[in-house]
Amino acid sequence: MPIIPNPSLARLRAGQVSIGFGVHHLRTVATPALAKAAGYDWLFIDMEHGAFSVQEATQLCMAALPVGIAPLVRVCTDALDEGTRALDNGAQGIIIPHVDTPQLAQRIASAFRFPPQGHRSWGGPVASHGFMPPAHDVAQREINNEILVIGMIETAQAVANADAIAAVPGIDCLFIGTSDLSADMGIAGQIGHPKVVASYEAVIAACKKHGKYAGVGGVYDDEWAPRYLKMGARFILAGSDQQFLFSGAKARFGFLSDVKI
């Protein structure tokens, strides 16, 4: 059957903003449908900080494919094997934290792309074609074209290397982890600090130069998130399930508790 298209990548290729829904705590297969119903383009399934097993993460991935929201999985920096298993079982992209050097970026790109672009192993029919792929060469070419391989920029070293990282073939997006970046710079949580702004400018410029996408993570306010989008970022994590639950629950509780009876 035809490959299931990646809706987040389609928006990015069209020059549009692609907005993500973070998943740290939810396990129900209704999660992708709920996020899609709210308008989101991709899921950020977090195996770095969330307590997901590969099984749980991939169940969410497979539930996401038929509803038209792209399941993207963040694995730990050295857990590339978890990333390839996620891709085999429904993920449409992998996010790797702490990509500080072009050498690591090259390793990541090679691990998640089939030959001739990389050395990802073919393990049989995969979820991206509904487990009924065309010939191997056709399937692998189509998969290479539809996945997102994303490196997170989370240190001053990574910012300094942003141009070289963005130049690596097979890396699609440089996604700034603003919380860790600001901590590394000694200004933890100051998402609008001049050093952070300068970092965004440098990373976005590198992405534009090399035809890659710039991403925003850890910026959840109403002031700086729009500013970074206007600077040229197009891939943005809007928040997580925990934040959305707290926000909605607290607002409703406050409204009802203020009712005069």
Secondary-structure element string: HEHEHEHEHHEHHEHHEHEH
CATH fold-level label: TIM Barrel
Mean pLDDT across the residues is 97
The proportion of strand residues reads: 15-25%
Question: At the fourth CATH level, what is the homologous superfamily?
Answer: Phosphoenolpyruvate-binding domains
The level of helicity is 40-55%
The CATH class is: Alpha Beta
Largest sheet: 8 strands, parallel, barrel
- What is the overall silhouette? globular
Radius of gyration: 18 Å
Count of the separate structural domains: 1
N- to C-terminal distance: 60 Å
Number of strands: 8
Q: Tally the helices: what do you get?
A: 12
Category by helix and strand content:
alpha/beta
In order across it, which strands form the biggest sheet? Answer: 1-2-3-4-5-6-7-8
* Oligomeric state as shown: single chain
CATH architecture group name:
Alpha-Beta Barrel
Low-confidence stretches: none
Which key phrases capture this entry?
TIM Barrel; 12 helices; 261 residues; 16% strand; 8 strands
Would you mind describing this structure in some detail?
It is a single chain. The protein is α/β, with parallel strands linked by helices and 261 residues long. It has a single domain, classed as Phosphoenolpyruvate-binding domains (TIM Barrel). Helices cover 44% and strands 16% of the residues. The chain is built from 12 helices and 8 strands. An 8-stranded parallel beta barrel has the order 1-2-3-4-5-6-7-8, surrounded by 9 helices. β1, α2 and β2 form a beta-alpha-beta unit. The longest helix has 17 residues. It is globular and about 65 Å long. 44% of the residues are buried.
